[in-house]
Write a structure and sequence with these properties.
single chain; alpha+beta; Trna Endonuclease, Chain: A, domain 1; 2 domains; five-stranded mixed beta sheet; about 40% helix; globular
């Protein structure tokens, strides 16, 4: 029988008005006890409906960036202790920490997902009928769907997140690829690219890949393979969309609809376990 592992966790609470003492659980951080290099993981919601109910002006982009930074620092044992100390010692009123709780589990990642489902995510029965009409397009929606697929496949902690382009362009380049992992002689990179909201970021993506790909291959001695994850439905006949798709084809960028993420994540699970 697999040994039970001792874990502790706390919730991240969004508190827009301290005086009213209203809050919404938006995240969870879990670490393994009695070891500095054991399991450490986090979950940040991508469903902001309950938070918007108490603060219509919530800055979700800032909170999502904060969640990605927390996940990055937790994945580095050299930064983990400092992060946890900082969060406990000097956290802002806007995001507060719950009291620490304890649990045991054979599979910490699965336990984290179970607790996040129970304590953070909104049950389907809570959602009103009109919630189904909420937007189902855009980079943030795509990123949330990719996150859910990778988490459900149980490989969240094995992925690289927010991979910087700066090493292959210039030190001031802020661009980052959403997800990636290395397997044998390849680096697989995945990025949410909206074909419904064709922004300058959408148009620039294939051009960035054209510049980065050969430099990354030379620096890493592995062939980069790029996948652009797009909406399930978009107008391929639209001139702007057609142009972007043509450029991505030229740069050998795979275009995958979000509905394909389950299979993409399963392939990643198999490759990372090999």
């Amino acid at each position: 029988m697999t040994d039970q592992r001792k874990l502790e966790y706390f919730l991240l609470r969004y508190v827009p008005n301290v005086v009213r003492e209203e809050f919404v659980n938006i995240g969870l951080i879990m670490t393994e006890l009695d070891t500095d290099s054991g399991f450490a993981g986090s979950h940040m919601t991508s469903d902001w409906r309950r938070a918007r109910a108490i603060d219509p002006n919530i800055d979700t982009e800032m909170l999502e960036a904060f969640g990605r930074e927390v996940a990055r620092r937790l994945s580095d044992p050299n930064e983990r202790a400092a992060l946890l100390f900082q969060m406990n010692d000097s956290f802002s009123n806007l995001v507060q920490l719950s009291p620490t709780e304890h649990t045991i589990a054979e599979d910490p990642a699965r336990e984290l997902n179970r607790l996040a489902s129970e304590l953070i995510e909104m049950p389907a029965v809570w959602a009103p009928d009109h919630a189904r009409s909420e937007r189902t397009f855009g980079r943030r929606w795509l990123h949330a769907g990719m996150t859910e697929a990778f988490r459900s496949a149980g490989i969240w902690d094995s992925l690289q997140k927010d991979l910087p382009a700066a090493p292959y362009t210039n030190p001031s380049d802020p661009f980052r690829f959403d997800f990636g992992y290395a397997v044998e002689d390849e680096i697989k990179l995945f990025h949410a690219v909206s074909l419904v909201e064709v922004s300058s970021e959408t148009r620039m993506f294939p051009l960035r890949v054209a510049k980065i790909s050969p430099r990354m291959e030379a620096a890493r001695a592995k062939k980069p393979r790029f996948t652009a994850v797009v909406e399930n439905d978009y107008n391929a006949a639209d001139e702007a969309v057609a142009t972007v798709l043509a450029f991505m084809h030229d740069e050998q960028i795979r275009v995958a609809r979000l509905q394909e993420m389950t299979q993409i994540a399963e392939t990643a699970r198999i490759e990372l376990a090999a």
